Recover the amino acids of this structure.
């Protein structure tokens, strides 16, 4: 029987042509999965989805024939992996290939927030750079990056790639990760010590029950005065209201954010009021080469599942009798 696969978004690079040779695919054109007919969902054997598609229990209950989910993302917090695992359904993701692109984005945000790059850009475009504000010794002062201390929360592949970049900037690097993993060149400390000592803090954890609001009001208050927070992992790890309050009170110097509790961020978010906050719209992995690799891995996972093979990059390999594991935000 020809399998039916729903792909929730057109994907770059012609890789879906190869998938279409092995199954019957339906590519959604802007409509949500939940908006599909009951028959369509019931007939679906496989899903290739994005991080913007909530794959929750209610949806899964309408898909009795589902045999695999392959997400074009490394993070899988949009997917109810627990329910899928109970049902012995493998979930694929795309680890490894977005490490450098995401680490570059984290560093871009760190530098931009420290040196007020976005604020300076706005200053000129809004016509404020005039002869009387041309240059002065205290004009547009920012925060030194070289020689500063960077605290990395989460020492998976992305956190380690950020540490390598920091070494190039002559920064001292502190690290904390829930697994206690030690990394060369990174001084492992407790989370509390990291927050207390770091001039810059960059978050590189997966979002899970244990990490939701890990940086809550108390931990943000425990950060070093004048510190900068960078988040390219998931918005749900940071309490945004507490972050906005810490920026407003002057406790923190700035923040560089690629991810938000709710995406797209609401235009009335207090974070957008703050001149020291640099925001970009979840583009950590958005380079042509990286996205092509992510699509390759996601299609590879789907192809393996269609052929009855274990997915090469599966977050719940326990669904297979004997399989290797690939977990975490890396
Ligand atoms: C992912 O793949 O989880 C990233 O957030 C995409 O940039």
């Amino acid at each position: 029987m020809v399998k039916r696969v729903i792909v929730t978004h057109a994907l770059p690079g012609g890789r879906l042509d190869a998938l279409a040779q092995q199954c019957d695919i339906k590519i959604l054109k802007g409509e949500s999965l939940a908006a599909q007919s009951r028959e369509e969902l019931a007939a679906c054997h496989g899903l290739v989805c994005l991080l913007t598609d909530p794959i929750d229990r209610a949806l899964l209950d309408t898909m009795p024939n589902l045999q695999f989910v392959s997400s074009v993302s490394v993070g899988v917090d949009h997917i109810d992996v627990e329910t899928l695992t109970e049902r012995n359904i493998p979930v694929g993701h795309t680890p490894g290939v977005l490490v450098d692109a995401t680490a570059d984005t984290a560093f871009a945000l760190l530098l931009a927030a420290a040196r007020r790059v976005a604020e300076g850009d706005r200053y000129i475009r809004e016509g404020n750079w005039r002869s009387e504000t041309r240059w002065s010794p205290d004009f547009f002062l920012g925060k030194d990056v070289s020689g500063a201390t960077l605290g990395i929360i989460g020492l998976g592949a992305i956190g380690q790639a950020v540490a390598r970049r920091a070494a190039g900037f002559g920064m001292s690097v502190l690290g904390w990760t829930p697994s206690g993993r030690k990394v060369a060149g990174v001084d492992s400390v407790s989370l509390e010590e990291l927050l207390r000592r770091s001039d810059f803090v960059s978050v590189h954890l997966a979002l899970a029950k244990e990490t939701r609001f890990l940086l809550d009001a108390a931990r943000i208050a425990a950060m070093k005065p004048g510190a900068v927070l960078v988040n390219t992992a998931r918005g749900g790890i940071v309490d945004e209201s507490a972050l906005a309050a810490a920026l407003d009170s002057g406790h923190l110097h700035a923040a560089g954010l690629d991810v938000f509790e709710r995406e797209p961020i609401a235009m009335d978010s207090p974070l957008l009021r703050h001149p020291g906050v640099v925001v970009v719209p979840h583009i950590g992995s958005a380079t042509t080469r990286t996205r092509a690799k992510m699509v390759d891995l996601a299609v590879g996972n789907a192809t393996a599942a269609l052929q009855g093979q274990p997915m090469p990059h599966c977050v719940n390999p326990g669904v297979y009798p004997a399989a290797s594991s690939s977990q975490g935000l890396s």
